[in-house]
Amino acid sequence: MTEFVRGLRLWFAPQRVREEGETPDYRFSLANERTFLAWIRTALALIGGGFAVDQFLPGLAWGVRAGMALGLLAAGVLCALRAVNHWVRCERAMRRGEDLPVTRFPTVLSLVVAVVAVVMVVVVLFGWEGGS
After folding, report:
1. What sign does the dihedral 70-104-106-111 (CA atoms) show?
2. Cα end-to-end span (Å), the chain
3. Are 101 and 87 within 8 A, CB to CB?
4. Region 5-33 average pLDDT
5. Closest to 34 (Cα-Cα) out of 42, 23, 24
6. Other C-beta atoms within 10 Å of 89: how many?
7. CB atoms inside a 10 Å sphere around CB 119
8. Where do the H-state alpha helices sit in 57-102?
9. Which of 46, 53, 102, 119 has the fewest Cβ atoms within 10 angstroms?
10. What are phi and psi of 104, to 5 degrees?
11. What's the CA gap between 69 and 116, in Å, rounded?
12. Rounded to whole angstroms, what are the CA distances from 43 to 72, 82, 108?
């Protein structure tokens, strides 16, 4: 079984992570869980922002509105999926006594949010309007 499949199986059977290495200090596992919850809150905020853009900016040109909404919704979905993946990877690394995994995801997420924010600044400054 590949490492990817093993990690994916742990998403749905997290108790199996106990089969690896030694139990870390509970404070580290709880910190890992709090980080997971922070990522989930971020995902929910992004998804809510995507729906808000779509629902509350009907006067905005359809392509701009849809692009901003879809960017935020996609970022929310990826953030939610990445949250559980990162939780599993960190828990496994702690149990194995390895360095915590590094990821580029925060950079990608930041870039997506920044692009949407720049578009929103342009919309606020120039008031783009268009038909639906």
Report:
1. negative
2. 49
3. no
4. 87
5. 42
6. 19
7. 18
8. 62-96
9. 102
10. -95, 0
11. 9
12. 9, 10, 14
Q: How far apart are CA 66 and CA 58, in angstroms?
A: 10
Residue with tokens 């995902």, as numbered in its chain: 43
Confidence of residue 1 (pLDDT cuts 50, 70, 90): low
Tokens, residue 16 = 């199996």
Place of tokens 């929103």: 120
Contact status, residue 20 vs residue 92, Cβ threshold 8 Å: yes
CA proximity to 94, closest of 10, 17, 2: 17
pLDDT of residue 128: 63
Mean pLDDT of 32-47: 95
Read off the pLDDT band of 130 (50, 70, 90): low
3-state class (DSSP) for residue 7: helix
Token duo for residue 50: 């995507």
In terms of Cβ atoms closer than 10 Å to its own Cβ (0-12, 13-18, 19+), residue 110 is: exposed
- What is the amino acid identity at position 129? E
